[in-house]
Amino acid sequence: MVSIALNLPGPAACARLRDLGAEVAKIEPPSGDPFEQFCPAWYRRLHEGMEVGRLDLKSDIGRKAMARRLEGADLLVTAQRAAALDRLGLGPSALARFPDLCHLAITGHAPPDDAIAGHDLTYLAQCGLVTPPSLPATLFADMAGAERAVSTALALLLSRSRGGSERRSVAALADAAEALAAPRREGLTAPGALLGGGFAGYNLYAAKRGWVALAALEPHFAERLREHFALPRLDSAALAELFSSHDAAYWHAWAREHDMPLAAVAESSTTSKD
């Protein structure tokens, strides 16, 4: 497979496909992939085992070299908007020369809105998954979109192997964000709802040091927790007092011993691994 997808979602998807056994050739523009500048250590890890080269697809020489790559490829992965692909000689009419080539287009929005600019933050914001002034803890849409791209690519290749005529599929990051927002949209994780703080057995609690995440959602877990601590009922105030008696590490170990869905909340870190 060949990829010209830059930044995070494309390389993350290609790394997953590599781990599943795909041979990946990444073609970057002469200036390289901006992601390498943003996060060089992660860039290197994502591209391990891939062939990485550079071509100027705006030149005749670069386009001819790319055509030779595509002649024997099963899949082309892109993350550019349609107008940009046309300028690079990789629009639908140009790719029609390769009848067996499948094209996975990672876009921000699904057609007909695929020309609208955006990034992870805007996709999450539109779905109600951003709480100002805090930024999201991770790049949810990019990472979920990468997984969506993998399943879309595999479905496209499977269809081809079964005689299907479709050769192009779109994996939209905004759609991935929309799917992530479904529990909130359906009221399951809304403030005060069952998984939004309304049930004492599914919540965050401050320990003597650190925090714990309790997810005793199923009745047998909730009942076992109540019985173990001889509580008349699961009550947030009672659990808060209980968990404040020991450090989070203590409760983490206790949960493993008693088969309880509870974990210490990992402390966030900004330490670079480069």
How would you characterize the overall build of this protein?
The chain folds into two domains: 182 residues, Rossmann fold; 71 residues, formyl-coa transferase, domain 3, CATH 3.30.1540.10. The protein has 14 helices and nine strands. The strands form two sheets. A six-stranded parallel sheet has the order 3-2-1-4-5-6. Helix 8 packs across helix 9. Helix content is 43%, strand content 14%. Helix 1 links the parallel strand 1 and strand 2. With 274 residues, it is an alpha/beta fold.
Task: Present the secondary structure layout.
Layout: E1 2-3, H1 9-19, E2 25-28, H2 34-38, H3 40-46, E3 51-54, H4 60-71, E4 75-78, H5 82-87, H6 92-95, E5 102-107, H7 120-126, H8 140-161, E6 168-172, H9 173-180, H10 182-185, H11 194-198, E7 202-206, E8 211-215, H12 219-228, H13 236-243, H14 248-257, E9 262-264
Stretches where pLDDT is under 50 for at least 5 consecutive residues are 269-274
CATH third-tier fold name of the largest domain: Rossmann fold
What share of the residues lie within helices? 40-55%
Strand content: 5-15%
CATH H-tier superfamily of the largest domain: Crotonobetainyl-coa:carnitine coa-transferase, domain 1
Q: How do the helices and strands follow one another from N- to C-terminus?
A: EHEHHEHEHHEHHEHHHEEHHHE
Number of helices: 14
List the strand order in the largest sheet: 3-2-1-4-5-6
CATH architecture of the largest domain: 3-Layer(aba) Sandwich
> SS-based structural class?
alpha/beta
The average pLDDT is: 96
Tell me the span between the first and last alpha carbons.
Answer: 28 Å
The overall strand count is 9
Overall number of structural domains: 2
The geometry reads as elongated
Return the CATH class of the largest domain: Alpha Beta
Radius of gyration over C-alpha positions, nearest whole angstrom = 24 Å
The major pleated sheet works out as: 6 strands, parallel
